[in-house]
């Protein structure tokens, strides 16, 4: 059996990436090992269920949302290269007392509605350059995703995996029993074509016309305008749905819908859509709001801003844009 290189070995060999970025990545990766243990312990550690609190998103927090947020926050506050952080679970940004280096935004537990039923969840993170010579403010976090220094996610599924993009390309590591991240997927590439879509169909009546038309075309199968039969998957953890797309192709949509017109979509730009979009683009896919406009070019205006998401296999995303 060939020996797989671990995350430390991979980072050491990545000459193009900044040493400080590697420090941040190593810190997040170590926190994700801790998170994987608490997620796996479930009911044994009493960590399932609701916390009885509502977060800034007006969503009921799970105990694990809070536990995982604390793990990442503590880890990042102890990392010399981090000047500030922002989380789905924190209303405001937090600073570390350091200047320069990097800012980190994160979703500590993505798909938390799945945790009590033992379905895959994840952690998503984005690393952005921090301003030099001063303490960061909220405005410093509002950068287009194109400027991310690195991004990644961990998925806690049948295997626990860490997917990363540093300066180029996308690689994936699998967690072994000793707690080491081993490089198992050297270069991840999303196939350009697919016949598998992911969308929450229960929202169909709220969608805008182009998305209705696109999904209707898929549902008509071979006899319809697309001339092929489609399959559908919806895990309801963005991390798991996007991971499937990285491994075998597909399209993921959480589009704009009319339920809350002042909230353009469900997913959050800075710690869900941007990091996932960088990974998808670096793996050869497309990440857009509507099949056309690139998520990574959006100038953020609010920390917890929401955005419609249409991403995945390049030719399939273009079909939504053509509608
Ligand atoms: P979170 O658990 O961090 O709030 O994110 C859940 C998100 C995303 O992971 C998933 O794609 C989507 O919510 C599922 O939403 P529905 O329950 O509306 O399908
Ligand atoms: Mn999420
Ligand atoms: Mn979350």
End-to-end separation in angstroms reads 49 Å
Which class of the largest domain in CATH terms?
Answer: Alpha Beta
Arithmetic mean pLDDT: 96
What is the helix content?
25-40%
- Judging from the principal axes of the Cα atoms, what is the shape? globular
Give the strand order of the largest sheet, numbering strands 1, 2, ... along the chain. Answer: 4-3-5-6-7-8-9-10
Q: Number of helical segments?
A: 8
Number of domains: 2
Listed once per kind, the bound small molecules are: 2,5-anhydro-1,6-di-O-phosphono-D-glucitol, manganese (II) ion
What value does the Rg take, in angstroms? 19 Å
In CATH terms, what is the architecture of the largest domain? Answer: 2-Layer Sandwich
Q: At the fourth CATH level, what is the homologous superfamily of the largest domain?
A: Fructose-1,6-Bisphosphatase, subunit A, domain 1
Q: Please state the structural category.
A: alpha+beta
Q: What order do the SSEs take from the amino end to the carboxyl end, as H and E?
A: HHEEHEEEEHEEEEEHEHEHEEH
Tell me the major beta sheet: 8 strands, mixed
Strand content: 15-25%
* Quantity of strands, as a count: 15
Model description:
The chain is α+β, with helices and mostly antiparallel strands. The chain folds into 2 domains: 7-185, Fructose-1,6-Bisphosphatase, subunit A, domain 1 (Fructose-1,6-Bisphosphatase, Chain A, domain 1), CATH 3.30.540.10; 196-322, 3-Layer(aba) Sandwich (D-Maltodextrin-Binding Protein, domain 2), CATH 3.40.190.80. The chain contains 8 helices and 15 strands. The strands form 3 sheets. An 8-stranded mixed beta sheet has the order 4-3-5-6-7-8-9-10, with helices on both faces. Strands 12-11-13-15-14 form a 5-stranded mixed beta sheet, sandwiched between helices. A hairpin with a 3-residue loop joins strand 7 and strand 8. Helix 2 runs antiparallel to helix 3. The longest helix is centred in the N-terminal third of the chain and has 23 residues, at 19-41. The protein is globular. The protein binds 2,5-anhydro-1,6-di-O-phosphono-D-glucitol and manganese (II) ion (2 copies). One manganese (II) ion binds at residues 65, 88, 107, 109-110, 112.
